[in-house]
């Protein structure tokens, strides 16, 4: 018999007792920290199928008050059903013996409600009777699915000369700005300070953000977006690093060759219009600065005509932030999830602007900037009365422009004050 047997037994018992005490202490600490985890599922959540918002409130609104339904989810019931079938293969979960999965239409409803109203996850948890951690996962997963199924059709970058010509013809018809293939603008999308990110997303406005750079067509649809650049980078650097800038420099965008403007035979290149936040180039046209407008009425006319076309990007961003009120405050997500949310909203915006019925519901005439037919003065759209604090404009770009770009702007000025003049 081992002479140390009794000693080993005593030592083993002491260790076992210490382990049991440790486990009990850990369980007690866990219960104090997470008191709600003492049950498998809360009773009020268990009654979700019978009393949850999606299966009661929204079902009633769908049949009894479609207008309220549209305001809650930003789309018609028919469009909601269509989108549900689109995202079903990507977000549908399997039922188990323990419990049934949350249906696809309910997952989509939660996400659209969050994007449309900016309602917090805690509030949505009580409204839909779904756990808050589950809500968080649903929103992130569904936003990725929405972007995946819609980007090929509703966030498509023009890839042929014919598609660019359609965009240019729209600008010529609607805004008397021919050979314009888009209005460009950029915004800082504010986010909560990411954990352990230092100053990577800290911008010069003393906020944390990711940058959204976009080009908008005359129908207020986004045709090019660059999302996710950290807010610390300079505003000029956002444009310089964008894929569009590279494609324009390499002439790989398949933009049509220069063509004459109405009334003249001299060809003008196709251009993108922007504000002072960008650099004047052969392919990007920006207004004259204020100090160069003194005693130059012709340049004021040019700035006015340019602002008409550039108003498309202002209205697109304004409508998007007004209708999707998640941008009313900084996004409470990490940068990657914030990027997914922005991409999903961009796709939904283009979807609603492309559908005839959805366009009228999504952007009634009063919400957009327009000109008074009698006076010609700008009538501010309703979106300007409720600015989104979660979106901030980018700052000023460089002021060193190429000689060719300056000459081109003067030629546009001459055209707008001559053959291309309008009442």
Quaternary structure classification: single chain
State the helical fraction. Answer: 40-55%
Beta strand %: 5-15%
Overall residue-averaged pLDDT value: 85
Number of strands: 10
Task: Please state the CA-atom Rg, rounded to the nearest Å.
Answer: 28 Å
Determine the number of helices (DSSP H or I, runs of at least 4 residues): 16
Spans where pLDDT lies below 50 across 5 or more residues: none
Q: Main β-sheet, in a few words?
A: 6 strands, mixed
State the shape: elongated
How far apart lie the N and C ends? 113 Å
Explain this structure to me?
The protein is α+β, with helices and mostly antiparallel strands and 423 residues long. Helices cover 50% and strands 10% of the residues. It has helices at 5-33, 43-46, 48-51, 57-64, 66-73, 77-91, 104-117, 121-128, 132-154, 161-175, 235-241, 243-250, 297-323, 335-354, 356-362, 403-416; strands at residues 180-190, 209-216, 222-230, 259-260, 267-268, 271-273, 284-285, 370-371, 378-379, 391-393. The protein is elongated and about 110 Å long.
